[in-house]
Write a structure and sequence with these properties.
Structural class: alpha/beta
Strand content: 15-25%
Largest sheet: 6 strands, parallel
Shape: globular
CATH architecture of the largest domain: 3-Layer(aba) Sandwich
Order of helices and strands: EEHHEHEEEHEEHEEHEEHEHEHEH
CATH topology of the largest domain: Rossmann fold
Length: 286
Amino acid sequence: MKNCYHARYMKETLPEKPELVAVDLDGTLLNTEHRLSDKTVSVIKALDNSGIPVVISTGRSYEGMMHYKNQLNLKNPVICYNGAMIADGATDSILHQWLLPSDITKEAYMYARERDFHIQVFQDGELYFEKRREESDYYEHSTGLTGRITNLDDWNNLEVTKALMIMPPSRESGEFPELHEAQSYFQKKYGDRLYCALSKPYYLEFINGLGSKGNALDQLSRDMGIPREKMAAFGDGFNDLEMLDYAGISVAMANAPDGVKERCLYTTELSNDEDGVADFIEKYIF
């Protein structure tokens, strides 16, 4: 376990400036309205223009995060689909991709169908699900994507970029034990072939076992010639842990759960609704 320091107790700057900053979107760079504040846009642009590339690292599809990338005027590689794909932010082409094997996709949607859980898959940049319901409406509203209705039994190729199981976000208890049970079942059965993580309490992600934001950041370390010790990462969720563990400078959001904060070297003083990332960068990186 890393020693965690709250930002307010830090010295004026980090011991060494990072050469790359990887940052999650939802719950980290975006506020709860799924928007970038003017301050965040200004600070991220200034950091990237200073010669420190800012890499978006998100569970969203490339299409689902493109408007944020454009708003920030970033041309750097993008980690998307929770690490299952790395795209070129300048040309929109795929640099690396690790697809979920067909047999895992099939069992995941059969498992969900039998229990009347919502599940959706991404293939070739498109979103698909078998029926429209509260969960699909919520996802479309929060990402700006529009899904297509399909019957997955009719697909000849079930290799997908990602599968996502979603519980009703409106559930009053805020507890989703079904997803913890599913995560345990699938991870135990498929082992290293599968990376399965909660990106939100009601989102369970399924990607290739060679994926994860941490593995993607390791790939970028090799591609860009930047050692992990000189990388910084910001995140708030359990699906960010591999990335935060990998980076030499790991920063949890103030709004992150304790299980994430205790794995990081630093914690922001402010939450994602208070420009926590921008505040940390201004105080300790510039």
